[in-house]
Amino acid sequence: MTTITREELDKLYNERGLTIRQIAAQLGVCDKTVQSWMEKHNLPRRDQHEAQRRYFFSREMLDDLYNQQDLSTYQIARQLNVAHTTVQWWMEKYDLPRRKKNESARISHISFRHRIYTLNEIAFNPPLTDEQAYWLGFLMADGCVRDDNSITIAVQAADYAHLEQFRAFLGSNHPIYQQQRGTYHSARLTVASAQLAAALKHYGVIPRKSFVASASPVLEPNPHFWRGMIDGDGFLSWSSKGKAPIIGLCGSQAIVSQFAAFCYQVSDTRSNIHTMKNIYEFKVSGLNALPIIAALYGVPGSALPRK
User: Fold this and answer.
1) Angle formed by the axes of helices 130-142 and 160-169, nearest 10°
2) What is the pTM of this model?
3) How many angstroms separate the CA atoms of 169 and 194, rounded?
C-alpha cells in the first residue's frame, strides 16, 4: 500500500501548493486517503479562501473562457484543474457577471457553434510525420485529454515559446494563458475537437492516462516520439560531478518498459526499471547514455531548448 512521510506530504501540500485532489492523483490514491494522512501527520488544512487565493487567473482568461467560449464554471474548473468554487471566487473578485439559468440552459443545448479560433483538426491524421510523432510524445507526457474532447497542455512559464510552437503546429490562434499557483508559474493552451481527440486516441493519448499510458506500436521505434516524451516527462542532465550524462523517463509501467526496449536497441545498457509509488523510472548514465542521446537529439526536429 502506498504511504508517505510527513516531510513528503508537507512539501507537496505547503511548498508546492498542491490540492488534496492533485496529491491523490499524483500518488494514485483516493482523496480520502490523503485526508487521512493529513490528519495522521497533524498537518493543518488550508481554509477555502486561502486555497482559492493560492491560484491566480487573469480577468482576460476567465472572460474569454466564460463569455467568448461559453464554457460553464464547471467546464472551466475541469480545464484549469481546480474546484469550480475557485473559478466562481475569481469571477466575483473581477466582478464578471454570471449567466442566468435560462441563458446557461440555452447554451448547453446548442449542438453546433462556429469556432471563434482557428484549428487544424487533421493535424494528427496519417501518414505519421516526424513532427507529429514529437508532439504525440509531448502530449503523452504533459498533455491532458478529457472526455469532453478538450485537449490541454501546460508547461512552466519559461517554456512559453515551446507552447507557441505547438500552437503553430495545430494551426491555431487560441490564446495561451499564464497562471500562478503559489510560487509556480505556468503557461497553458486548451483546444477542443472531437476529431483531434479521436486521432490522439488512435496513438494511445487518452483521458486518465497517467498510470496506464502506452504508445501504439507505430510509435515504439520512433526517436521523435521518445524525444517528445523526454522533453515532457523525462530528464537529460549531468551527474552530480558533471562528468557523466544521464537520460531517463518516468511514467506508467507500460510506457517506461517501451522506452527501455527502445534504449536496449540503440545502446549496450543493461539498466533496470525502478518503481516509485505507482510511477516507474528508467535511466541510463555514462557512455551508454551517449548513443541514446544521439538517437533522440542528434536528428533535426522539434525539441525543448533547455534540454
Assistant:
1) 130
2) 0.70
3) 18
